[in-house]
Specification:
single chain; 637 residues; alpha+beta; 7-stranded mixed beta sheet; 4-stranded antiparallel beta sheet; 30 helices; 17 strands; disordered C terminus
Length: 637
Amino acid sequence: MGFQTPQYKITTLLAWAAQGKVQLPDFQRPYKWDDDRIRELLVTILRGHPMGVIMTLETGNDQVRFKPKPLTGVDGGVGDPEYLLLDGQQRMTSMFQALSGNGVVDTLDARKKKLRRRYFIDIEKSLGSPADQDESVLSLPEDGKVKKNFDREIVLDVSTTELQQRHGLMPMVEVFGPNPMGWLFGYTSAVEEQRAERQKHLEVFHQRVLNPMSNYEIPAIELDRSTTKEAVATVFEKVNTGGLALDVFELLTSTFAGDASYYVKHGTDFRLAEDWALTEAVLAKHPVISGLRRTDFLQAVTLLATHQRHTDDIDAGKKRPAATSARREDVLRLSLDDYLAWADQVRAALAWVAGFFREQHIHAPSFLPYRTQIVPLAVLRVLLGEDIDAHPVLARVRQWYWCGVLGELYGGSIETRFARDVEQVPAWARAALDGAPAEEPYSVSGAGFRESRLHSLHTRNSAAYKGLYALLMTNHVKDWQYDKQIDFASYSDLQVDIHHIFPTAYASRQGFVGGVQDSIVNKTPLAKKTNIFLSGRSPADYLPALESKAGLTTEALDDILRVHLIDPELLRKADFESFIRARRGALVDLVEKAMGKQVARDVVDDSGAEDADAFEPEPADTEDGEDEYLSESDTTL
C-alpha cells in the first residue's frame, strides 16, 4: 500500500466534489452534522486553525471495487470518480453545501429538528478579537430573515444582496465564489456615510480574512490504487474521526453494489441491505434467534464458501488445501458470487435452528446461552441437509451443542472454533448413521465441566446457567401450582422464569445467603405467580399451603418435584444442606447426560454447604469476545 500526503485548497476540493472527481464509497452513512458543528467548522477556517486531515483512496483497483456516490448536495450526472473519500465526509459535505451553490445546508438543530441554513460573516466582527471572530460567523434561516414574536416581526433581513451589503454580512458562499471583491465593493458603497470606514474595513478584511480563507489548505492522506480491501477496513477502525459506526457489512455492501458482472446480467446493482431485509423477515418469525446480527450471517456464508474451497482442494489432492474460515479478512474477501451461492441456504436453515432451540426448551432470546452458536448450527444444517434430523445424527449434534454451552466454549474469540466445527462435526455426526468410527470434534473432546462450577452459576450472564435452566425444562417439568407442562406453548402464558427453591428472604433469615444459596443448585423454572406464592416462606410451610391452593395430593406434588430433580423429603424438612448435596448430584447427572461424558467431581465438603468465598467469582460470560472480530461498532465515520 502506497500513499502521498498532499495539501489541497478548499476551492480545489469544492470543484472536485462538484465534478464528481472525489466521491464517497457507497457504504458511507448519510450526512449527519448539526448546525453548531457546521458553524464551528467555518470558524476554524476563518481563524486559519487546522481542521485535521482527510483521507482518499485512488480508484482503478479491480480488487477493491466500491460503488461510488456523490457527496450530499452534488447534482447528479457526474462521471466516475478518481478518488473515494474514506475519512472526512462530514467536513467535506458541510463545506460543499455551505461554501458553494446557493450556500443552503440541510442540517439539524440541537434537538435533531431539521433546518435549512445559510452562513454569513460579519465583516466588522471578523476583524476583532478571537471571541469576536467566533461570533462573526452567523447561521441564519435560508431566506435570510430572522423573526420573533411567532414569526410576526422581522428583526434582521438579509434576503437580498443589497440588504446583506448594507448589514455588512457577507455570505460564506461569496468568499469562495468567482468574484468576492465584487461583493465587497458593493459593501463599501452600500451606506454612503460609512463609505470611508468601510473602505478601511475592506482592506483589512482582504488581508486578514479573505486572502487566508481563500488559500486555506487541508492536508490529505492519499492511498494509491494498490491498497487492499483489508487495509481500507483498517482505515475505518483506526483513523476515522466522525461519529457514526461502521462494520464490514457496509464495506461488502459497497463492494457488492460495485460488481460489474452482476449489473451487466441484471441491469441493476446488488443491494446487500435489501437482501438482509429478507433475513430480518425470517428472524421476526422466530424471536429466539432475533438477536442474530448481519455480521453473524456473513460469517455463516463465509464459512460455507471457504469450506467448499477447502473440500474441492482436498478432492483435487492438493497438499495445502484452502482453509475453512470465518476470520474477518476472509469475510471481506467474500465475492458476490459466493454470497449468492450460499445466502439463501443459510436463510432457510435459520428456521431449523429456531426449531432446534425450541426442542432444547430455549424459548426466549434472553435465555439463549450463546447467540454465536446460531452461526455453526445454521452451517451444519446446510451441510448435513435432511440427514441432520435422523435420530443418531441429531443426537450427536445435540451433544456437540451442549458441550459448547456447558463447557462455555463460545464466549471468547470464536472464529477458529467455528472453522473446526464446520470441518469436524458433519463427518462425525453423519458417521452415526452406519456406526462408522469417527474422531470426536474438538468442541466435544475438549469440553469439560466441574461440579464446583454449579455453585458459582448465579445469573444469566453465564451460558452454562442458561443451559442448565433449559435442560431442566427438557425433563418435561410442570409448574408446581398450575397443571401445565412448561413448554413453548405455556412458557409465555405462565411468565416462566428461573426462581429460588429456598426463597431468598427465608434463606436470609436462616443466615445462609450468597454462594450456593443463589446458585443454579437452588433454582428451578416456575411460573411468576407460583414464585410469588412461595416468596419468603420455608419449604416446610409453603408445600402444604401449595397443596391446599392447587388441590394437589402430597404424592402428586412430590412427583412434580422429582421431575425438577428435587428430593421431596429433604425439601419438606427444609434440610438445606442435604437438599443442596442431593440436587447438586442430580444436576451433575443431567450435565453428564447432555455432554455425553463424565463431570469432574471436585466438591469435597460432604455437607454441600460450602462458603461462598470457597468458589471463584462467576466469569462475565457475555459473548463480548467475538466482537473483537466482527464488531458492529468497529469504527466511526
